[in-house]
Amino acid sequence: MADQFDLTIIGSGPGGYVAAIRAAQLGMKVAVVEKWATLGGTCLNIGCIPSKALLHASELFEEASHGFKNLGIDIPTPQLNLRQMMVHKADTVASNVGGVDYLFKKNKITVFRGIGSIPAPGKVLVTPQSGGQTEIVTKNIVIATGSVSASLPGIEIDEKKVVTSTGALNLESVPRRLVVIGAGVIGLELGSVWMRLGAQVTVVEFLDRILPGMDSEVARQFQRMLQKQGMEFKLSSKVAGIDRAEDGSLKLRVEPAKGGEAEVLEAEVALVAIGRKPFTEGLGLELAGVALDERGRVRVDAHYKSSVDGIYAIGDVIVGPMLAHKAEDEGIAVAEILAGQAGHVNYKAIPGVVYTNPEVASVGKTEDELKAEGINYKIGKFPFTANGRAKAMVATQGFVKILADVETDRVLGAHIVGKNAGEMIHELVTLMEFSGAAEDLARTTHAHPTLSEAIREAALSLGDGAIHI
């Protein structure tokens, strides 16, 4: 007799494992199908978590190398132990994936190892690397298979010299020259890791700006900060091909985006970071009758249901930002919907963070979007140069920018460039979740001295004016 479950989830990344836990909390018998040896998906194994381990370690290395002396801390010149840094990364990953394993056992979630496919509604076929197939009978199926790195035509990825984010997290030595193809979040984060550890980094971007989709003023200011740190940019440019020299070095042919004479960039490593694409390979969606959109994403309704009853999808395989926390919220929502509750995600209040130094964090509308939509808005800004705690921390780069409706004072968007921006954005997320006004924030007491005072000051500047500028 085949195993029978209330819910079977294909994929154990942030969307899948959170959906599984929430469904189990709501009384469902849950199965999860995972093809990897460890749980947690791309994010925990080869994405968000290991990259943050290297970002943190490289920031401390740079600070010890260049920032301690002015603070009265005299130490010998730090020496990079890349092997130990990678051990720290591996330990961080192991701790996180082990935590998911514990939570699955605690919530009595059954894990099937192998590739999951959907031969028909109500059935999931699990094909392990060795041994026979297992068929799961299930009332509902959630597709949570995530995404994979997008590739460039004609460029071969070997994860040694020409790498995606996966290879960039596992380099055995610091490259003398690193070329990053793509000025999005992943490219800038990983480029900054290796730049801090000693690489000369050049970023090639097809568009005329970095961080597409983020507020353009924020992107311009942030680019200047990265350039001061030593990162070079070639915007409105494309990589036409990569040639490999006999000594193992790379020669990248870079052309203007609109066409023209090419130049050659030499590098030891090239990182292809042009975005990600939904991963639905091997699921058998066509045979099951599940409709996809023009970009290969599963078409779903407001309740995450696909074109086939009993089959749902969340996370990177559906429309929306490819963010782990967006997938987690969708996982909770779909579990609650299947339990007869009112699961919901407020897509207007999902933060995004670039974990560089300084960090960039945003939520809601950009100024560009408000202009395009013809919304009458006002801007409140406050620089960290006028913040006492930032001065004490030698972290005065950046600013807070809040966008509010002129008539209602309701906050429509917020953007922070600065130290710990990713931690500070959440009071603005909460404010927007409750449709709060800038005045609500301006009248909320903030502890002194803190970096977060800059947020209150930006809100005050939307009224009678900030106090400290």
From TrEMBL:
Residues 350-459 form the Pyridine nucleotide-disulphide oxidoreductase dimerisation domain. Its cofactor is FAD. NAD(+) binds at residues 182-189, 205, 275. The keyword Iron-sulfur does not apply. Its EC number is 1.8.1.4. SUPFAM superfamilies: FAD/NAD(P)-binding domain (SSF51905), FAD/NAD-linked reductases, dimerisation (C-terminal) domain (SSF55424). Residues 5-331 form the FAD/NAD(P)-binding domain. The active site is at residue 448. GO terms for biological process: 2-oxoglutarate metabolic process; cellular respiration. Belongs to the class-I pyridine nucleotide-disulfide oxidoreductase family. The active site is a redox-active disulfide bond. This is Dihydrolipoyl dehydrogenase. It comes from Devosia aurantiaca.
